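[Meeting: bench + compute handoff]

Bench side (C.D.) handed over the final construct sequence. Compute side (W.E.) agreed to return the predicted structure before the next meeting so the bench team could plan truncations. Sequence as handed over:
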Amino acid sequence: LIYNSTLGVEVETASNGTFAADMVVVAIPLGVLKAAVVDFVPSMPVNIQGSIDRLGVGVFNKIWLTFDDNYFDGDQYMYFPLDLTAPFNGSTPVLYGVNMQKQLGQPVLMFFIGGEFASFVDSQSEASVESIIMTALRELDPTLPNPLSIQLTRWEQDPYARGSYSHISTQTREDDQSQFEMSGSDRLFFAGEHTIRHYFQTVHGAYLSGRREASRIVSLFK
């Protein structure tokens, strides 16, 4: 990504050519920015690069199991530890599940997983993940059959995301999210959930950051 105070902006892609514009709004996920797979010319503003380095990126995945019948008709929510041999800094991974029968009209269990266990799941096959969850579920009901299908997200492995959303790390400064509003260039703007201090980690935060940058760009033409 080449940005110049007098000539404008050029975005060079690996396979879709080059795009020229007067300005660019960089809404690249924080995980991708931290991986430094996009080259900025000139270099990323120092204050923004510092924020990128200090902010953390977490992993939060979902798993869906579809069954042939609603075997958990009386249970809307589930919460139980997993008996795994893999080390997670001495902690025990916990599954939080929701019976989606009421919402979908289908016998689907949806599970939320985060932290190190989410990263662990990212590296496992669907069959392995299914086995882990079914072992835990059969502690509740030993007669439970195998699911018809399993689906799961793998945000950490997604090259266009490299994580789910930002979080405050031990190195994060109070104003790190606000730094993205101060690129020092009238060509380069930043949006995304990681760029908004009071609503980071949220979809509405990402949306509001986009409106914020659009308003800033419009103001330059008034």
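W.E. noted at the follow-up: Residues 203-219 form the longest helix (17 residues). C.D. will use this when planning the next construct.
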